[in-house]
Write a structure and sequence with these properties.
330 residues; alpha+beta; PARG_helical; single chain; three-stranded antiparallel sheet; two-stranded antiparallel sheet
C-alpha cells in the first residue's frame, strides 16, 4: 500500500491520510502512531485487513508478533457463542479503525507524567479510544518505572478472569461506537441549520459531542508533608454509607490507595477494588501509559472518565453484567 493513500472508515464515517509523521519523539513522551517505530505497525494493520478474510483472522495475524494468538483463543472459549460473534464482527472492526484513525487524531507525542513531578495531560475521548485500541493490539511497551508488565496487553492472558475483562472492554468499545453515531447525527443536525440560527446555539451543539470531550490525567506532588504529625480536619457534613459500592455513588470523589502503580493488577489477573474500578471505566487505563509509579508524596487524579459497564461479585467471582454510561471522577 502506498504511504500516501487514504484509509476510509465506514464505521466512523471518517478518513485519514496514511503517511508517516516527521515529528520527533522526545524522551519522557508516549510515541504517536505516526512515529517511526509505530507507523509501520499501523501500516501492517491496514495491509492485514486487506488480505485477511475475517476480523479474527486479522487479529490473530497482528497478535502473532506480540502477545500470541493462542491466548486469545483461550479467552474466547470462555465467552458465549453470541458474545464471540459480537466481538469478532463488531468490536474488532471498531478497534482496528480506531487504531488507524489515531494517525489523524494523535499527531504528536504525548507527555508522560514522571514520579515526583507535577503535570497534567488532556486528551479528547476520541484520542483516548485510539490509544486504548493501539494498546490492545500490543503497540506499546512500558518501562519498568511504570509497572512490572513490559507489554500493554489489555486482555489475552487466558482464563475466566480475562474473559470477564474482555466483556468490559467490549462494553467500552460498544459505547465509543454509540457515541460516534450520536456525534455524527449531531454533525448532520448542525449542517442543516441555516445562517439565521444563533451562533451560540450552534457552538453549544458542537460542544455537546461526546468524543470531543476532554479526559484529564493529573499528577500532584506534596513537596513538604510530615505524615507523622499530620491531622485531618473535617469541614462540613460527612455522610457515611455502608450500602452499595463506591463507584456507584454519583457526584462523589473516589479515592483508591491500593497500589504504587496506578491500575494495580488490571493488566493481568488482578480483580479487586482498583481493577474493578478500571474495568468499569476503561478510559482510566490510559493513565497506565502516561504515569510512572508513585512515591509516598505522589497522587494521580483523573477527570471525566465514563463508566461503561457494571458488574456483580468481587475478586475472581466478579462478572461484567451490563452496559451503562455515566461520568466519573477519581
Amino acid at each position: 500500500m502506498s504511504s500516501s493513500q487514504i484509509y476510509k472508515s465506514e464505521i466512523f464515517h471518517d478518513e485519514v491520510e496514511v503517511v508517516p509523521s516527521s515529528v520527533a519523539v522526545p524522551s519522557n513522551t508516549l510515541p504517536h502512531p505516526g512515529s517511526p517505530n509505530l507507523f509501520p505497525k499501523v501500516l501492517a494493520i491496514i495491509n492485514t485487513l486487506k488480505t485477511s478474510k475475517s476480523s479474527i483472522g486479522s487479529l490473530t495475524q497482528i497478535l502473532t508478533s506480540t502477545q500470541g494468538s493462542c491466548q486469545l483463543i483461550r479467552v474466547l472459549k470462555n465467552l458465549s457463542t453470541e458474545e464471540t460473534k459480537h466481538f469478532t464482527t463488531i468490536t474488532l472492526p471498531v478497534i482496528f479503525d480506531l487504531a488507524i484513525l489515531s494517525l489523524k487524531y494523535i499527531q504528536s507525542p504525548i507527555p508522560q507524567l514522571k514520579m515526583t513531578t507535577k503535570g497534567v495531560v488532556e486528551l479528547t475521548r476520541r484520542q483516548v479510544a485510539g490509544l486504548l485500541a493501539l494498546s490492545l493490539l500490543g503497540f506499546y511497551t512500558l518501562p519498568q518505572t511504570f509497572r512490572d508488565v513490559s507489554i500493554f496487553p489489555i486482555v489475552f492472558f487466558g482464563g475466566k478472569v480475562q474473559a470477564t475483562k474482555l466483556r468490559a472492554y467490549i462494553a467500552y468499545f460498544d459505547g465509543i461506537l454509540r457515541f460516534s453515531k450520536d456525534d455524527t447525527a449531531l454533525d448532520d443536525e448542525i449542517a442543516k441549520l441555516d445562517s439565521t440560527v444563533d451562533s451560540t446555539k450552534i457552538e453549544n451543539l458542537k460542544q455537546s459531542k461526546v468524543l470531543d470531550e476532554i479526559v484529564v490525567v493529573e499528577r500532584n506532588v506534596v513537596k513538604k508533608f510530615d505524615f507523622a504529625r499530620s491531622e485531618v480536619k473535617v469541614v462540613g457534613n460527612v455522610e457515611v454509607d455502608d450500602v452499595g459500592v463506591i463507584e456507584d455513588k454519583q457526584g462523589a470523589l473516589e479515592a483508591d490507595f491500593a497500589n504504587k502503580y496506578i491500575g494495580g493488577g488490571v493488566l493481568n489477573m488482578g480483580m479487586v477494588q482498583e481493577e474493578i474500578l478500571f474495568l468499569k471505566c476503561p478510559e482510566s487505563l490510559v493513565s497506565l501509559l502516561l504515569c510512572e509509579g508513585m512515591e509516598d508524596k505522589d497522587s494521580i487524579r483523573m477527570y471525566n472518565v465514563i463508566k461503561y459497564s457494571d458488574g456483580e461479585g468481587y475478586s475472581h467471582g466478579y462478572n461484567t453484567t451490563k452496559e451503562v454510561f455515566s461520568k466519573k471522577e477519581f
